[in-house]
Each structure stands twice: as C-alpha cells, then as structure tokens.
Amino acid sequence: MMRGESSVLDHIEHWLRYRQWAENLPGMQVAVWRDGELRRSLAIGHADLAAQTPLTTKHRFRVASHSKTMTAVAVLQLWERDRLGLDDTVTRWIPELGHVASAHEVNVRHLLTHRGGLLRDGRDADYWQFMKSFPDDAQLIDMAAEAFGVTEVDSQYKYSNIGYGLLGLIVARAAGQPYPDYVRTHIADRLGLHDTGADVGPGHVVGNLATGYGGAHLTRRRHRVAQDVHTQALAAATGFYSTAEDLVRIAAALFSDDSRLLGPEARALLVTSQLPMRDPLSDIVSYGYGVRTLEVHGRVLYGHGGNYPGHTSQTLWDPAEGLAVSVLVNAIDVAAVQICKGVMALLSGQDAEGPENGDLHRFGGHFASIWNVLDLAVLDGVLTMIWPGQSNPLDGAIKLTQIGPETFAFPRTGGSFGTGELVEFVFDEHENVRHIRVAGTTYQPVAATTHDFRPPVPAWG
Questions:
Q1: Phi, psi (degrees; rounded to nearest 5) at 181
Q2: Each residue of 217-264: pLDDT tens digit?
Q3: Cα-Cα-Cα-Cα dihedral sign, residues 199, 316, 5, 36
Q4: How far apart are CA 334 and CA 241, in angstroms?
Q5: Residue 280: helix, strand or coil by DSSP?
Q6: How far apart are CA 312 and CA 319, in angstroms?
Q7: Phi, psi (5° rounding) for residue 224?
Q8: Where do the H-state alpha helices sit in 261-383?
Q9: Mapping DSSP to helix (H, G, I), strand (E, B) and coil, where does residue 379 land?
C-alpha cells in the first residue's frame, strides 16, 4: 500500500471518528478490502455504553438483511448441484401452502428477487419490537398463507421478509439439514469465517455481541435493545450476525473471480437485474438475487444493508476498483449506507500505485473555527478541502492550488466561499501546523484520540 492510499485511509478514520462523535453514536465498526486484502479495520466508540466497554473489530453485530445475500448464495449453491430449480414453485417445497392459489404461481426465482407480491412482515409484525417471538416454521407457514397476493406476481418489486423466510425453509428441505447448519458449513466454513452465523438464541449461543441501542427520536437518551433474540424461521431474512471484516471477505468472494462459494454463472445471477427500479433515497436501481445494485455519482455498486432493532449495517462492493467497504453501527437511527457511501467516495480513484505527493501530506489535517469544521486531505494528488459534516464528504469539496511554499488558493470561479482567496499555513518549530487562515478566518488543528473525537478549545472557548 502506497503512502497516498494510506493517507486517505488515515483521513477516513478521522472522518469516521468525527461522524461517531457528531452523531452521538455508541460505536461503529468499519472494514476496507481492496485488491485481495484487508486494507483497514476500525472499531470506534463503545460496545456497551453503561459498562464503557470499548468496541473492538471482533465484536459481532446483527446484520439483518445481509442475511438475504447469504440465503441467495445457499439457494444458488443448491441450484448448481441440481438439488432445486429456480422455477420450482413454493408449493413444490412447501406443500402445506397448497390451499393458497398464489403459492402455485410464485417460484423460487420470484422470492429471491422480491417479485412474489408477498406482504413484507405479515399482518402482525410486532415481533420486530420484541412484543412477541419471531415466528417458528409452522407459524411462518400460517403467516405466509395470508401474505400472498398483495401485488400481482412478477409485476413489480415488493420487498418481503416473509418471502425470504420461505426460502430458508426451502433451503433446509432441499439440503436435508437445518438452515443455520447449512450456511455455516457451505458459507462461513468455506471462507474460514469464525464470527459469522445465521442466528442467535436457544441452540445458537453467540458471545461478544455489541449492545444495541434505540434511537434518540423520542428522548435524548438511547435505550438498550436486546441482541440475543432468536429470529427462528426468519433467520434467512434477518437473523445473521457478523463483523465488518467478515462481510468484506464475503463480498470479495462473491463479486470477484472467486469460486469458493459460487461458480461464474451463479455469481452473475446475484447481480442480474430483474425489474428496473429507482429509489431516490438510497440510489438503488435494481435488485438481483439477494443483492442490490446502486448507482452513486455514476459508479455501479453492489451490496446489501440491514436494519435490526439496535443495529444498522451496510456493505458495498465497487467492481471497477475491487473495493469493498462494510459499516456496522450499534444504533438504530443512523443511515449506515450513507457512511458507507462516504467511505467509498473518499477511496474512489485513489490508486495505490499512484503518486505519493509526499510534500503535500504535511498540509493535511483537521481544523475548526467557531463556524465549522473542515478537513484537508490529498486526493488524486491534489490538496482538497472537505466538509466532514456531509453524509458524502466530497459534496462541496474544493480543490486547492499551491501558489507558494505554504500558501494555496481557492478556484477563481464558482461558489460564494473563498472564491479566488487564500489558504495560508503557519507551522511551529517542529513543522506541525500551528493554525491555518482560510479566506482570512483562523482555523485551529483538531486532534482525534483513541476512542473519541474531541472538539477544539481555541481562544474563544
């Protein structure tokens, strides 16, 4: 790894620490995989606030709908072995639904791609709030009997956890073993993953789970949310636990030239668009076989996210750069996908073999005034001003031009902030930045400690 990429990763780490502090998040786990290796793994904040337990890279999170990708892999593995067909109807494998007319029309492919027209979570979904237990196999089948027919089969994208729960039953029946056992043997064990599994609860005791926390949307204090809840028949839709490191390894195995889990044809099916869609809030443009495709500023990304009471998560893969990023947060009210896309944006185009620009790195850092916080980082060989409060840190980024040994200039066109003005650096006797003047305003350096971002206490404090 060249210094240029290392410097960007250092900047990303500080940006993440700032986001964790600014959004009052309990903890955050982030992993970056590139070109066949783990480039950075971070744990920021706390696994448990009351006990003040520092979060580590080995703490496990409930990664919720990442489970759908695992289930799609399991189905496609069985398809490769001719143990089931993608056009098999639901009733072929679950004859208990034979009295439901629509169940004879919906097939495995429809369930994988959310085109079966089923209810999302059933008519009583308060198991999500732990007001009742998650359904077992028999209860899921009863719920499914009332879940078909919300939309016409194969007519539109209709997200359904019930549908993926049925896929879990199909995997178990086609494989001849319980779903959690199958995915452990054929996914986790094949990749040598020791922190990933299909469910927790009775018979699936899992240690080292990060404590989950509710949102601050009703009170300013976060409340603890239990994480050892058994998702039972919905494990295939939402039960998985994992770490950021394991998730980027899974992404690399699925989206690169790696046949440990799936052959080339099955890997292609994962990202094969079924029905075009456009979700302006999430940049999702299609859903394949357990995998979402996003278009973000002209880049195509693959992956999935997950929302579980107390935990949120997102993993993305950039096929053009062989880059995977996974972000896990132990709070319910944060968009992990936005943080993940922010990390992707900062890493995009940062070629590990590119120029080091060693002379410019001395100007990089994190600075604050009474007005705001700004970052300076070398991106694509250019000193760039970044606003870390943005969900995409490159929104509004400004590329600076060096005009003197310790002086840079803003562009002369566009924008109302600093156009044509100067960014001037003042160094101390140890060649550390004492302060900078940005269009006449003094900004002080900001330091990040091991676990927390600390705002500056400059002269006006």
A1: -70, -40
A2: 767 778 899 888 999 999 999 999 999 999 999 999 999 999 999 999
A3: positive
A4: 18
A5: coil
A6: 24
A7: -70, 145
A8: 264-270, 336-347, 358-361
A9: strand
Q: What letter represents residue 202's amino acid?
A: P
- Separation of first and last alpha carbons in the chain: 40
pLDDT, tens only, 185-210? 999 999 999 999 999 877 666 889 99
CA dist 88 and 354 (Å) reads 50
What residues have CB less than 8 Å from 95, skipping those under 6 apart? Answer: none
CATH class of 1-23+354-461: mainly beta
Q: Which fold has domain 26-65+182-347?
A: Beta-lactamase (3.40.710)
Domains 1-23+354-461 and 26-65+182-347 share a fold: no
User: Domain-by-domain residue ranges, the chain?
Assistant: 1-23+354-461, 26-65+182-347, 68-175
Q: How far apart are CA 83 and CA 94, in angstroms?
A: 15
Give the H or E element holding residue 104: none
Predicted TM-score (pTM) of this structure: 0.90
If phi over 0 gives left and psi between -120 and 50 gives alpha, with beta otherwise, what is residue 234?
Answer: alpha
| Token code pair at residue 458 | 């400059």
Q: Which of 110, 97, 99 is nearest to 173 (CA)?
A: 97
Closest by CA to 162, choosing from 244, 237, 77, 242, is: 237
Contacts of residues 255-258 at CB distance under 8 Å and 24 or more positions apart, as own/partner, are 255/302, 255/317, 255/319, 255/324, 256/36, 256/322
